[in-house]
Amino acid sequence: MKYFGTDGFRGRVNETLTVDHAIKIGKYLGYHYGKEKNGEKVRCVIGKDTRRSGYMYEYGLVAGLTATGVEVSLLHVTTTPSVSYITRSEGFDFGIMITASHNPYSDNGIKVIDKDGYKLSEEVLLKIEDYIDDKISIDLSTGENVGVAIKYPEGRENYAKYLQNTMNVDFKGIRVGLDCANGASFMLAKKVFDALGAETIVINNTPDGLNINRDCGSTHMESLQELVKKEKLDIAFAFDGDADRCLAVDENGNIVDGDMIIYIYGCYLKEKNELVDDTVVTTVMSNIGLTKALTAKGIKNVQTSVGDKYVSAEIVAHKYSVGGEQSGHVIIDKYATTGDGILTAIKLLEVCVEKKCSLSSLISDVTIFPQILVNVRVENMEAVLASSELKVVTDDIVNKLGDTGRILLRKSGTEPLVRIMVEAQTDKECADYAEAIKAKILELAAK
């Protein structure tokens, strides 16, 4: 697809993603759903994270939507999973989230969510792209058929109450750290944990429009690890800019990533005979050690391409219970249609409370292989990855690793990056092999 990648339409503000794009996306969505509903009023809900550019895209979308007759409800700053929840639970025809997730403030993006809380079908997204490129024309509303926009902060409250109602335990006496990444969770995460009885300490919850994800949140865990040790916390959680990701820190200050969260929750559900087909869903980025540990517990691990939409599709197709990504997108099918950072956090802590044990003890029998991830900025990604010279280098490394590791090369779905992943028996092997691949990629890119 030309504009919409694995996670919506994302790009540099007013460079690859402009306000005109937002207006056109709004116009086409209003037109599309207006035809589908055959004259009935179309309803849309919109949320955004804390980026300064969110205002621009929000009101650009509103202009396009109301121009084609849509009644728009504005949640303003909220999380991606809250938009998904409100869309499906309150009868909206579709939802939109304005966010670039874990990217810096200079990027932004537009995610479109269907009435069931899932990402919009590629068929409709392709039609939006055609409209952006002036390949098709649409009719606008006139007179009394022009749409309206209203504020809807109640939606955030409804979502917070829903999260609280998913719990069977309280967190009284538990000391919890939260890193809100100066993003969308700053208005919701503490409120939910406080309501459940936890003693919460929050960091990076003062967004200014420019500091989202800056040295904080799920992509920069150091300050949260330090907080756990300094304050002697029982557990801590870090979210990304739109709070559809969650990573944890155990009582010793060690990071517990998405792989480990899926392992913990998968084992928990299996013990309760609630893990459908004794299977969890992960991506090809998941560590070899996870698969080995799951197998030892009698749990199968189905892997998809990288991207939570692929995990979601696999879960929906087979009605699996849980799945996600190493990066912290975790989908718990019973409660959500998308990755939900706050939900993941409270359900992970629920496991600890029910089992009366620490987070570290829940993964004590998992041996994770050393892994390194390296990003290489490359404009001509397709040509580089198809190069026979690169294949010679990677084939040699694969032969040397045998069954003691693996490599994976892939394109980023949101940036001009080639992502290199190497797993091996030692950190030095990982670093050496990753550096050899990176050097060859840079050499090819310079040609």
SSE layout:
Elements: E1 4-5, E2 8-12, H1 19-37, E3 42-48, H2 54-67, E4 70-77, H3 80-89, E5 94-98, E6 107-114, H4 122-132, E7 148-151, H5 154-165, E8 175-179, H6 189-195, E9 199-203, H7 222-231, E10 235-239, E11 246-249, E12 255-256, H8 258-271, E13 279-283, H9 288-296, E14 300-304, H10 308-318, E15 322-324, E16 330-332, H11 341-355, E17 371-377, H12 381-385, H13 388-401, E18 406-411, E19 417-423, H14 427-445
Helix proportion range:
25-40%
Mean pLDDT: 95
Strand order of the largest sheet: 1-2-6-5-3-4-7
Sheet-strand content, in percent, reads 15-25%
The helix tally amounts to 14
Whole-number radius of gyration? Answer: 22 Å
Largest sheet: 7 strands, mixed
Give start-end ranges of low-pLDDT stretches. none
E-strand count: 19
Class inferred from helices and paired strands: alpha/beta
| Gross morphology | globular
> How many angstroms separate the termini?
27 Å
Describe this structure in words.
Helix 2 links the parallel strand 3 (42-48) and strand 4 (70-77). This protein is globular. The strands form five sheets. The chain has a seven-stranded mixed β-sheet, sandwiched between helices. The chain has a five-stranded mixed β-sheet with strand order 9-8-10-11-12, with helices on both faces. Strands 17-19-18 form a three-stranded antiparallel β-sheet. 38% of the residues lie in helices and 21% in strands. The longest helix is centred in the N-terminal third of the chain and has 19 residues, at 19-37. Helix 8 packs across helix 11. It is built from 14 helices and 19 strands. It starts with a strand and ends with a helix. With 447 residues, it is of the alpha/beta class.
